[in-house]
Structure formats: structure tokens, C-alpha cells
Amino acid sequence: MAYASRSGRKPMERASKIAHAHVINDPGVRALLERCHVPTSPEDLTELSVLDFPADQDTQTISTVIAVDGGSTEAFIREEYPSATVTFFNFGPLMLALKDLRELDAQEFIFPEDLQKLKKIERFSLAMPTRNVALLGESGLAASFRRTLHEFVEQPRSSDSPLGDTMRWLLFRGWRGGPKPPWTLPQCPNACGGPAIELEPDTPPQTACPTCGGPVYTIDALRLHERVEEEQGAGAVTAYLLTTLEQLVIAHVIRSVLALKKTLLSEILFIKDGPLAFFGVVAPMRKPMQELCDHLDGTNGAPLLRMVGVEKSGAFVEHAIALEKNLPKGVVLPLRNEYIYRYIIPGGGTAEYGFNTYYGRKFIFRSHRGEVYVCTMPIRGDWTDEDNVLAQIAEPLSVISALRCSMYENALVPVALANKLVSLSDYPSTKILAAFARDEVASR
Ligand SMILES: [Zn+2]
User: Fold this and answer.
1) How far is ligand 1, taken at its centre, from the CA of residue 239, in Å?
2) Ligand 1 centroid vs 195 CA: distance in angstroms?
3) Total Cβ atoms within 10 A of residue 411
């Protein structure tokens, strides 16, 4: 089983159930419940249209895994009220040769020396003001949040181009020839009330609003600042920011590989922690990512870009756990609209599930060894054509299956390693970060 956190019901649950009974007897709540439906339990699900997954699939082209993962931690720089915080983000790609990973998986424990052997690409760390902190010269938290993010993605890097270049490459489809579409900001990020602002492919990383003259950055395309509240802080967007940065890093690596040697891409499997999707305010980023995936279609059948998002929590994982006993080993269950709306997410309609957030298809995979994974992968062509789907997912999923790590019961090796490397609770400690942040602020 790839997911382990089923046991350990919280002790509070029993007490809170008594309160629930009280709420359910309320006539208003009862009237609402009569008009609601919740997904059907998969307990009695016996007829599943699964695809048989070939056993002993050899990896033929994938030689390298690039896992992208990150973490964030909020540190107080003033604990007394009103408290002030900054949030540290640490993320990046971890590049691992498949043969080294296989050796590691055979060992019972992973030692620090083993970690040393694994090749690391540059990691990123970012400190963002998230509550009651303003940069000197900025009008408030939202302006400070924007400028910090702008400076971070545009900062020159010794061996590589800035992440901001990759962001513009995505926004304006740098891989495409011919005219490139502009990117529209529906409102001025400085909230001056002026009309929409169009960013063009040749717009510099920082320009000015024609109405108020305030700064307009490339990163304003993410519109994260719209959810940053001067009083409440930026807590509502930290998760969106982290997953956006992780996916920006994937695009950055793809762009770097394309600049080196396009065919190299087919040797790489990208693994992302979480689904291949952009949620909330950053959802419009889904479109260029989808177009990039479509663009990287191999010419002779095999897809050039292989990418898997592996989920560790959420409704789909909970469903997979409940379904496990009904799911034979060595199968793939494609999660199509009808199934998702019936068993996992209430709702429906004719729109494809996640059509405006996902750039991949979802399925549950149970390996021949028995572990269950919820995955997203970009699928070219007909999603209902079983041969087409199997041809694209077979090799990446066999790699996923081989990477199961015995030390981290519910994790893939590279994701576990990436977690270990970026784990802010281990190194450097939150305490050290908080002290560091306080000193930085005090020294101004
Ligand atoms: Zn303006």
C-alpha cells in the first residue's frame, strides 16, 4: 500500500460527533441535507473497467528521474500581537539516475552518504513577507509580497537564466514560432481601478501601469496578490505559490533540456508531488502548460515528455484507499467523468473534470507488488482508446512502481529524498530561520 495514514483516528472525533448530532437535528440543516448528495461509497463496487498493466515492463528509454518537491514554513518575527510572519519556501528539482535509485531501494536504510552520491541540481529558497511586514519603500503587504516574488524570480543566477525567463517562455509560448498571444491582466495589480493591462512578449520583467504609474511585474500574471489581505495576511496563497513555483521549476528544466538536446527529454521522467494542475487564482497557468505538453509530442509515436503527478492526500487518495480491496494487482483504473462524479467528487455536468485546472488525466494505479497510487499524466490522443493510454503510461508507471521505497512506507524514493533535502523542520530549523528573519528585519 502506498498510502499509510489510515489508522490513528483523532481522539477528538468522538466528542465532536456528539456536537454533529445536535447540528443534524437542526431543521435548517435537515432541509439542506435533503437537497444534497454525497459521492457513493466504493464499498460495493465490483465492476470496474480497469486496464491490465503489463508485468515486468522493462524501462527502455527512461534513465533519469527528476523529482520536484518543496515545502514551506511560517516563522514569527514578532510573536506578540499583532504578530508578524515571514514564510520560507524551499523547493527545487532533484535529479537521480535510475540505476542509483534501484540500488538505494535494495538497501534497508538510506544513509546521509547515499544522499551525497545523488546528484543535486540547484535548489531554491525564498523568504516571503506573509503577515504584518512591509518592505521599506512599499505601501503594504501586497506590494511587498509582489516585489519580493518579482525580485526572486528575476534574480540573475550564475549558471542559469532566471526563473522569470521561463515564466515569460510559458506565458508567451516561447517554443512556438509566429505571432505570440499577449497575456491580459484584468486589473492593475496596484488596484488603481484603471483598465486591463496587456503584457506582450517583449514587455520587460517590470513595467509601469499606464493609469497610475505603479509597477507591473511579470509575476503579476499569477494574480496571487489579489488574495493577499493587508490584515489577514498572505496565508491564503502560500500553497498556491508553492505549487506554482514547483511547476515553474519543471518548466524551467524542460526549457533547459530543450535548449541542450531535445531528444534527451525522452530519457527523463518528471515526478511532481501532487496533481498536475493549477488551482485557484493561478488556474490560468494551466493553459500554457497544457500547450507545452501538447507541443512535446514525439514524432514517431513515443511521447517526448513524460511527467507524473503523484498524490499523497485528498479526496482521490481517500477514495483509492477505500477502493483498494476491490482493486486487483497490476491494473490501471482511468478516472473518467462519470466515475469521478459518482464516487469521488459530487457534481457533474458535461464539462470534463478539471478541464480548467488540470493538464493531465487522472487514474488509480495498483502495481503488481500491490501498492496503490493516484497519478496524473498528460495523455495525447484519444483518452478512451485503451491501447493509446497504455502505450503512454506503461513505462513511467513501471518506473514509479520500481521506486517504491521501503524506508518511507508511503512515498516514492525521489519524492522522499526531495522531502528530506528540503525539509525545513530538520534543516535549518524553524528556530534558526526565525532568528535569522528577526535579525534581518532589525538590522535595517
Ligand atoms: Zn494602476
Assistant:
1) 27
2) 8
3) 23
Place of cell 482521490: 316
Mean pLDDT confidence for 338-365: 88
Gap from CA of 162 to ligand 1 centroid (Å): 26
Per-residue model confidence as pLDDT tens digits over 163-185:
999 999 999 999 998 889 999 99
pLDDT, one tens digit per residue, over 49-81 is 888 888 766 667 888 888 887 888 898 888 888
Distance 375 CA to ligand 1 centre (A): 42
- Expressed in angstroms and rounded, the spacing between residue 187 Cα and the centre of ligand 1 is 8
Is residue 272's pLDDT more than 50? yes
pLDDT band at 436 (very low <50, low <70, confident <90, very high): low
This prediction's pTM: 0.85
Strand-pairing partners, residue 85, are: 76, 131
315-318 CB contacts, 8 Å cutoff, 24+ apart: 315/344, 315/345, 316/275, 316/344, 316/362, 316/364, 316/374, 317/3, 317/374
Looking at per-residue pLDDT, the higher value among 210 and 118 belongs to: 210
